[in-house]
Amino acid sequence: MEQVLANGIYLGAQYAMIALGLTLIFALMNVLNFAHGQMYVIGGFVTYTIYGQLGLPYIVALLASCVTLAVLGALIERFLFAPVIKGSAREESTMLLAAGIAFLLDALILLIFGEKQRGVPKIVNGVLNWDFRIIMPYDRILICGLAIFSIVAFIAFMQFSRTGRALRALAQDRTAAQLMGVNVDRYSTIGFALGAMLAGLVGGLLVTITGINLGMGGPTSIKAFMMVMIGGAGVISGAIAGGFILGFMEAIGLAVLSQYGDITYLVIFISLMIFLAIRPQGLMGKPWG
Amino acid sequence: MKRRTLVKSALAATALVALQSTAVFAGNPVLKIGFVGVTSGPAAAWGISNQRSMETRAAWINETGGYKIGNTTYDIKIVSFDDQKDPKRSIAGMDKMAQEGIHYVVGPNTDDGAEAVRPVAEANGIMYFPYAFSKSLYTPPASNAVLAMVANYQSGPAIYKYLKEKKGVKTVAFVAANESDPLSQRTSGVAAAKALGLKVVSDNVTYQPDTTDFTPVLTPVIRQRPDLLVLSGVSPAHAPQLIRSARELGYQGLISTETAQDAQVLREGAGDLANGFISVGGASTPELASDAMKEFVKRYTKMFGEYNDESNTKVYALEYILATLAANPKAINDVKEFQKTMDTFEAPNPFMKGNAKLTYVGTTSFTQKRQIAVPLVVNTFENGAFKTLFVATVD
Amino acid sequence: MNGVTSKQLIGFGIFLLAIFVGVPIVIAATGRWDFYFTLTSVALLSIASAGVWLTFYIGRINIGQGAFALIGAYVSAILVAKAGVSFWISLLVAGLFAAVVSVLIGLPILRLRGVYFAMITLVLTQVVTLVALALPITNGAKGITSIPLPGGISLLGLQILPPFDSMADTKLAFYIMASILMVLTYLALWRLVNSRLGHICRSMQQNEELASSIGVNIAYIRIIIFAISSFFGGIGGALFGSISQSVYPSSFQVTDSVNFMLNCFLGGLGYVFGPMLGTLTLYFGWDLLFTLGKYQLLVYSVLLILVIRFLPNGLLSLRLGKLGKGGGK
Amino acid sequence: MSALLEVCGVTKKFGGLTAVNDVSFDVGQNEILSVIGPNGAGKSTLFKLISSFLRTTSGEVLYEGKRISDLKPHVVARLGVVRTFQETTIFKSMTVRESVIVAQHLRAKASLAGYFWGTRTARADIAAFGRYADELLEFMGMSAMAEELASNLPQGHLRALGIAIGLATDPKVLLLDEPFAGMNPEETMRTVNLVRSVCDARGVTILLVEHDMPAVMNISDRIVVLNFGEKIAEGTPSEIQNNEKVIEAYLGSADDEVGI
């Protein structure tokens, strides 16, 4: 039981972080960023290159991942999303753009970082073994802690900083924010960069545990979508809740349903569909029409 | 107006690229060999190691004057098609090969792709060499597919038998990704283990291909304390994580798989925890590699920056095609001739020390010779590199 | 609005001529026989895309068409391979079965809108794949293989169509079959969009509350549209199964669902023939770029981004001036 | 009095909050009845309850003696009780004429499949829809803008379009949601006349919910006043004008936009 809880918290923390960036971008621009997973993968590869290959300190690599993705995110928003949103008759057209960017990033990752699974040396050694009730390697505990710390820091940033408040105003009501004197274009870019940066940060954190390969992008995006839906699209607290719920569902499902094997995820997906059919706005989302 | 011109010029550029004729080699006539497989997306590693080993070998042949088939010396050109692991695209790829007049194709990499291209290959007279285990591909009435590696239902029993006799393994547990190929491999693995009298303590735990944390997946399996944990059809990306999770959960027994792995990936992903991990490989371990194999690895590394141990098994398909054509030059445009030759074909294996032979096998599994006799080399991972555990043959 | 102008008739005639005469001539002249399969794929994928486009027409982003294509493929494969039913009957049954399933699933989920509907249909695709892996009737992971080719059709003892396995060139036969079905699909779609049902769909796309206030049973229309959409999906899937003579759980996956949706976006959501053009561009484009080797995906994605950057309303928006919206052709 | 529409003890609670509490009144044949009240009085909730866009917590709404509350909106519309919306709710990318044609859904004699195959009934329907749309737009004085995209119309005409869409369904009772909101006196005057003639010339019973007091006084046969979700008065415009409870309610509310 304790093990299931610990697994759930660990999974939940990493999922929540992935979902945060996605939901932020969705809240700000109503864009479902199909390329989120690819951004996560790039973050992982940057950390791999700097920490694993060049041997620089881990923290430097992590920062480099954040910066790379923030810049990439800002560029993508400024030169691709912003003009397309302005010129498109239906805002869903951005989905095609997002998918195109996902393909592009996939192609670049393949050309730059190659097709192999990559991993970095462990950042901490050893395994916590509490009487065989909880077994958890120290590096996981550390990454879990860092993830939770980042989530708290992000919430604090959104709550108390000037930029964060402007972003929240923007997410709530674009027109109203504009009337209040928020520079909408500028903050859209900042928000997108921030969302991308979060993806890069998770990539940099998780590469130490799971390693990274170019195939992780697409599935990660889809998982992130599901978490965002569970919690409610475009709601920060919802993304966190969604991440932890999916994390716990997996941990519990795998523990309880393991003797039925193949159906664990079928059960998770079907219950997700039933949940969404009953409560379409997710746990904390605003009802959609 | 401006955007119209832009789109038009983009389209024109596309058309140009499409019509651009293939590069011409100087001198020798060109023999085209095809590759249809996945070289982008999540499973890119499978196809890329394949494609690259073919290109390395082709470049090597061309550099040393070409390959002599009958009275003609050919330069070898590899034509690749990325099917994105989508059976619909695999068919398109096989059609492209037919279009290019190619009769010998390596790939596809998965069961569904290999099965989907069968009608095209048989209609167009193409022999193809998939990395897929589905028996119906190779058993009559199927005629044109040749299994290009050792199937897990062949390597599995050998490995389990060895471990049962030499390491005293009595109980075994299976874990597989919830996808066609790994599940099929698990099913045949379980059957093989039972046939040997091993006790299967867990055979229904699966994980999604997008899993990032394997601890919850493995927890119930490890609790059964099997002597051997089999990772059925595990992809190179998942192997180190599964090993790491199992060891961190305190698992002490053996871990094995029947697919090829890459030492570098294991080293990075699991480090010392991967010591003792048993996998199937080619003949590149120092004990077995011939000078040709060493040369191949060197050239591959030079061409692409980094070697991939999966290529150890994937270097063979092209070699078989060429050697069989050399044995019967009539087969170059006629796969019926090729099929005839397969029954009697024999040539020395250039990649392995000693007097190993290239032959076609598979009678036991498929009732006809539709498999290349890759040496079944079982490796164990020790301190960052593979060591040969034992070598067996397939019939 | 409902009359067909002579200009449209001529356009349609040219289109038919191009498909059934032009393409075979060009292929015979250039010797590019491989284009037959590519174009056959385009035809059957655009049938499925047409369904997705129709759900867009009532304002729903549908990322679940892969699920219905897979259902269709399995129904046809099981009927043909296990029960020995004629392929042509199985094709119809596959479409109908997919439609029935879509009604059952649609009842609870069609209330959702926007990304919520999109997500739930995406999950649906995964559910169907996992079900196909788990069920005994689908052969689980092993898939259904060696499906016989379509048989002939005879009516009153008169053979209208010879069995496919007696033909020298099944490529052409499959191409013609898929093209005919595609033309029928798009004729039906065009007719539907320009008939009263289409007008009602447009009204729902713009405002469901207002539509229901004028007496439209929106729940019923949504189900009807979703069922028609899934019918197309089932047909497309069944066709693919018969061409590849095998069906696996991975025959249609999330990627396919996403691609169906992208086809619609790329062609243009405002145009009936958008999904056809979108499918042609996305699928054929990939094929054409195959000579680029490892740069294929890079060039493909860059071109895709350029198109959406400069034509955000779809390829057909280039001709927006000349043609009315919604009508197309 | 023969009541066409009866509101009987209708109550709506949202969680712990009672938005409409035990409201009852009747609407007679060919009458114009207005529901007024200060902001937050529960007018629009009541409006949605009558048109069945919301479910009642208790009580019921009867039309011709039959219960219509808790039915689906389109069923209520089929029975002849049709609501309009405020100006933003239109078919934005249809022309005025297209909107009015689509809105004649309930007048269709052919089935949807009939339209698909183009049967004789369907073709007759289509012709009839066109004729009726032209007639209706003529009546509304909107013929000149028939081919205009709805999203391009000025605000006053949007409201008229909303009413035209409602009328196209051939309603017995038309429910108007704040038809005069945000209009200048001249536009209000024109709309008042229009509503009057809808009632008189086309025999449609009208129930409207409104903020604008002078317009309501002008147009209504009878008025129902709500405050805090409860009915506080009912009567002719002159009775209401002199009702102390009403004056108190309006003076007591902070709403200075509405004066008596």
Short structural summary:
With 395 residues, chain B is an alpha/beta fold. Chain B folds into two domains: 25-149 and 288-374, 3-Layer(aba) Sandwich (Rossmann fold), CATH 3.40.50; 152-259, Rossmann fold (3-Layer(aba) Sandwich). Helices cover 42% and strands 21% of the residues of chain B.
Structure overview:
The complex is a heterotetramer of chains A (289), B (395), C (329) and D (260). Chain A has helices at residues 2-29, 36-53, 58-87, 93-113, 138-160, 162-172, 174-179, 184-210, 217-231, 236-256, 264-278; strands at 127-130, 134-137. Chain A has 289 residues and is mostly helical. In chain A, helix 1 packs parallel to helix 5 (138-160) and helix 1 (2-29) runs antiparallel to helix 10. The longest helix of chain A is centred in the first third of the chain and has 30 residues, at 58-87. Chain A is globular. By secondary structure, chain C is mostly helical. Chain C has a domain at 32-149 and 168-254. Chain C is 68% helix and 2% strand. The two termini of chain C are 13 Å apart. Chain D is built from 10 helices and 10 strands. Chain D is globular, with a radius of gyration of 19 Å. At the B-C interface, helix 1, strand 3, helix 3, helix 4 and helix 6 of B face helix 2, helix 9, helix 11 and helix 12 of C.
- How many beta-strand segments of chain A? 2
The coarse silhouette of chain C is: globular
Biggest pleated-sheet summary of chain A: 2 strands, antiparallel
Greatest chain-chain contact:
B-C, 49 and 50 residues
**Count of discrete alpha- or pi-helical segments spanning 4 or more residues of chain A:** 11
> What would CATH call the architecture of chain A?
Orthogonal Bundle
The first-level CATH class of chain A is given as: Mainly Alpha
The N- and C-terminal alpha carbons of chain A lie at a distance of: 41 Å
Q: Class by helix and strand content of chain A?
A: mainly alpha
Would you list the SSEs of chain C in sequence order as H and E?
A: HHHHHEEHHHHHHH
What would you call the quaternary organization? heterotetramer
Strand order of the largest sheet of chain A: 1-2
- Note the overall shape of chain A: globular
Give the tally of structural domains of chain A.
1
Q: Considering DSSP H and I runs of 4 or more, what fraction of the residues of chain A is helical?
A: over 70%
Main β-sheet, spatial strand arrangement of chain C? 1-2
